[in-house]
């Protein structure tokens, strides 16, 4: 769950006002890369991303679990280049590349694709993606009465500065195959269901989602610079194949001004920074 520069600073300022801690904003709204050494931020609530097969966790700070995403408003869709979370299906390390591409973890199925699935697309995809790459898509939902838009700032408002947040997550391997899943089926396009802004769909055949308490993610955070935002996560444990050309079409035009994959936050392995999975 990535926070863009402008949206991140606005969102954290709103949260800081709500909790009365402007020092927190000064700490984590820094645009520099976070330090790689130093004390772990164990005074924060549970952090994300994590190994979803490991149910152990020693961070005891809790918050109210967000309601089902179908009872919330979709506020943002974005994706990370490389899986941020880890499961048996996506546990291979991925080499980091330029422009935020690469890093994180990769699907095992990415190593057994056919020559046809690996064929280079006719057009550049999302500023550098290629068949065989792994992405993790985040559908962000909020309890605020807002319309979907760019960045996490779209999930809040002046009258709703501390909402419940839920992220539905799916990891995909990109393939050049028109018969694979289409990203357009998971976009927004003004879809409203029972009065709530909703994605057209979210994969339902990739295993039972693993739900846990966590935070926002993205490359600006690590074990030493942590996110203060409280997020209920629902991560599907299996990979799926996604038609890379359909993702390219979405990157070319969508309501969220997303045109590339975001960087990843390093996988958290310190048990004091993540919550137990029930």
**First-residue to last-residue Cα separation:** 22 Å
Helix amount, in percent? 10-25%
Largest sheet: 6 strands, mixed
The structural domain count equals 1
Tell me, briefly, the overall form: globular
Radius of gyration, in Å, reads 18 Å
Structural class: alpha+beta
pLDDT < 50 stretches: 10-32
Question: Strand portion, in percent?
Answer: 15-25%
Number of DSSP E strands: 10
Question: What does the model show?
Answer:
The chain is of the alpha+beta class. The protein has one domain. The strands form three sheets. Strands 1, 4, 5, 8, 9 and 10 form a six-stranded mixed β-sheet that branches. It has a two-stranded antiparallel ribbon with strand order 2-3. Strand 6 and strand 7 form a beta hairpin. The longest helix has 15 residues.
What can be said about this structure in brief?
The protein is of the alpha+beta class.
Question: Can you give keywords for this protein?
Answer:
3 helices, 19% strand, 10 strands, alpha+beta, six-stranded mixed β-sheet, 278 residues
Topology of this protein?
Layout: H1 5-19, H2 22-28, E1 73-81, E2 90-93, E3 105-107, E4 134-142, E5 165-175, E6 192-193, E7 196-197, E8 210-214, E9 231-235, E10 240-243, H3 244-252
Helix pairs in contact: 1-2
């Amino acid at each position: 769950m990535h926070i863009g520069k402008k949206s991140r600073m606005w969102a954290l300022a709103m949260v800081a006002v709500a909790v009365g801690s402007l020092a927190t904003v000064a700490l984590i709204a820094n645009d520099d890369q976070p330090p790689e050494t130093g004390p772990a931020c164990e005074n924060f609530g549970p952090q994300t991303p994590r190994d979803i097969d490991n149910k152990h966790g020693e961070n005891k700070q809790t918050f109210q679990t967000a309601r089902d995403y179908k009872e919330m408003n979709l506020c943002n869709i974005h994706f990370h280049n490389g899986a941020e979370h880890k499961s048996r299906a996506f546990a291979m390390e991925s080499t980091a590349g330029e422009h935020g591409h690469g890093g994180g973890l990769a699907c095992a199925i990415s190593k057994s694709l056919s020559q046809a699935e690996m064929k280079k697309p006719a057009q550049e995809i999302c500023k550098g993606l290629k068949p065989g790459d792994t992405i993790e898509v985040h559908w962000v939902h909020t309890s605020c009465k807002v319309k979907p838009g760019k960045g996490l700032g779209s999930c809040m408002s002046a009258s709703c500065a501390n909402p419940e947040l839920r992220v539905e997550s799916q990891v995909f391997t990109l393939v050049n195959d028109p018969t694979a899943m289409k990203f357009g089926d998971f976009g927004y396009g003004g879809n409203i269901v029972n009065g709530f802004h909703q994605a057209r769909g979210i994969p339902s055949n990739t295993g039972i989602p693993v739900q846990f308490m966590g935070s926002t993610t993205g490359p600006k955070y690590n074990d030493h610079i942590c996110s203060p935002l409280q997020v209920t996560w629902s991560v599907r444990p299996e990979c799926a194949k996604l038609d890379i050309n359909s993702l390219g079409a979405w990157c070319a035009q969508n309501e969220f001004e997303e045109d590339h994959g975001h960087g990843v936050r390093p996988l958290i392995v310190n048990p004091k920074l993540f919550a137990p999975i029930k």
